[in-house]
Each structure stands twice: as structure tokens, then as C-alpha cells.
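Run RNA exonuclease through structure prediction, thanks.
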Amino acid sequence: MAVIHDRLILRCHSSQRLKQEGYNLGQENCNNGTKAAIRNKRSRAPNPDPLWPKRKAVALDCEMVWVRNGGREILSISVVDFFTAEVLVDSLAEPREPIVDWRTHIHGIGPESLSMAMSQGRVLPGWAAARQQLFKHINTETVIVGQSLQHDLKWLRVSHVRIFDTAIVAAEAVAGKDFGSGRRWSLKSLCADLLKLRIRKGPEAHCALEDAMAAREVALWCICYPDKLKQWAKRAHKKSRTERPKEADHKKNGRRKVHHSHDGGEGNVVVPV
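Sure, done. The structure for RNA exonuclease is below.
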């Protein structure tokens, strides 16, 4: 465990990289005192306390809904211990703002599911309660592992600097540290390519717990098998280079002119191929 933890720490991303990827690393001040400013204030995890030891690393994933104010809110949160795979948090959360899009087609959670869980007392009262559940298990020295965590942490209103993002790790492996705004590999594709593991099998396939577990497995693989990661990266880089000309040709030829009769005459109509 100590060796893997040391490797995990070394592979955490720089502040510059995290900022480039949209992570918020500082606690924001609410100088204007508006409700929006207070609502969007970011908080850091508790500082280390020898009397209250926390987990050295956790894997995190959340599912979201769109709400009336134009943002998102947490609908479910899952947190697992990175080293033991112990499930620390796996709960639904009741959004505080009116929901305008449940995104049920993505995660399978709808009004009925939430109402049933609420009747059984299995729902957290909003994103702040979800964040508090996370903070029960982490401090500022905990490494948070996940896929594209900037989105999860944004809507949990959390600022954190010790991050192992599997999307960044894969992109850097293929294109180097200066990969910029290039391709990002999805968690599903990383599981298939690296682990030969199929996730999200159903039509409403996103599950916070499954994704947290999957991100944990991908991260462990990247840490334990750096040579295999390099080999995959070479293949992926070669494949992406061969695909670029095809994509360019497709974009170039993706629209063509055809003659279409309209009101007795002919006109040029652009039709996508």
C-alpha cells in the first residue's frame, strides 16, 4: 500500500494542469454577499488532525441533474476507499433547486426513484450534505481519484489540489504534458482498452458507484503498469494520427450540393451526408 500511495502522490497533477482543465483550486470569497455568491462558494476539505485520521485516497463520482438557475446539482454521490475498495458513501441527494432536466436517460434516476428513496430515509438533503459526507472521509492531504473530476467537484463546491484524474493521465500518456485541448478518452473506453472491462452495459448506464470503482481500477492499472501504459499510449497515438486525415476528409466532404425541386424551380440545397 505504501508503495502505491507514494506513486499515486507522485502522479498527482500540477496546479497549472488542473487550472487548465477547469479545476478550482482556491477558496472563493463571497465579497458581494449575494445568494448566488454564497451558494457557489467553494470549500476545502478539513485540515489533517491526528485525532481524526482520514483516508489516504478515495475514488469519487457523482451524477447530476440540470436545475432552474441554469446550473447542475448533485443527484447521487459515491465515494470508495482507493486502496480497499470499501464503499464509504453511496447515496442519492435531493436537489435544492427545481429540476428542469432529470437526465434519466443517462443515469436511470427519475422522480419515482428519488421519491421512493426519500420515503425510506435514504436521500441526502442537497449538495451541501453530499459534500459533508465526502468531508467525513477526506482531508486536504487525501488524493481524490476519478474521471474528469472538475465537474463533480464544481457542483460539490469543493476546492482540492491532490487530484489523480484518469482522463488527464491518459491524455498525457498519449500526447505528453503539453497535450493542450486534444483528445480525451472516456472512462468507458479506458476500461475497454486498458482493463478489457466492459462497463455501462444498459441503456441508462451511468452509475456513480460503478464509475467510481472503474476509475479506481484504471488508476491502479496506470500506477502499477507504467510500461503497459506507455505501450497503449504509443498505439493510441498512432491510431489517432491515422484517424485525423479521415476526419478531415469527412469534414471536407460532409456537406454536398444537390438539386432539389421547389415550387417548380431548382435550387442548391446543402444536405449533410
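The domain at 2-224 is CATH 3.30.420.10 (Nucleotidyltransferase; domain 5).
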